[in-house]
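Input:
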Amino acid sequence: MRKKIAAGNWKMNTTVDEGKKLAKDICDMIAKKPLKTINGNPGVIFFTPFVHLIEISKIIDGLDGVYAGAQNCHSKPSGAFTGEVSASMIKSAGITHVLVGHSERRNLFNENNKMLAAKASIAVENDLKIVFCCGELLDERENEKHFDVIRNQLKEGLFWMDERSFSNALIAYEPVWAIGTGVNATPGQAQEMHAFIRKQIAEKYGKKIAENFTILYGGSCNSKNAKQLFKQEDVDGGLIGGASLKAGEFFKIVQSF
Ligand code: PEP
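Output:
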């Protein structure tokens, strides 16, 4: 079944204490208004910095539909990769989700589709659910290359998976020109691309899997535009950056289904 999801990508923000307070404030709101009472029964994921994860998983423990996720993992199981964190380490910390292919990883850390496919592979091998991000640059949209870019990112990064692995994936469509800019994709632009992505999934994995697959929108999503975006037929929720760092704002987004 398609799941409604509001996921917060905290990026490199908050100290551990600030992160604990942020998660606790949101969880207190969820405890007062459980997710299953909200239209669409959304799930919530906190993609926090690595050093926060164990503390955050204690805070969410016992709350239905709330998960913690890492923002990245390495593509190898272990070894001489100073400063890196493996999928099995993330799993062993009790964490359920990991982001793969965020545009900041692609563009600032030169992660290409081949590397991202390797990361996605080791993540699902370790029983982690992945949120695979895709999105075009501004000039790619202006030159009407956006559909080709997304098709290729999915083909090379994700669509090598068999059905079983693919069932552990979600996709986040995040146009790079909308991330952190205050300029979100219009609901129409988001719907158009999400429908395109769903069609790609149907062609590769069949209509039934495509219909039940969760596709999130990300890029300057906030409490003011979330309702209109989430109302679109093929938009199943959001991956939220800046607006996930304020408890009240993020909870309003959670309630936008
Ligand atoms: C993101 O980083 O995934 C994101 C969507 O950021 P923002 O909401 O700040 O645009």
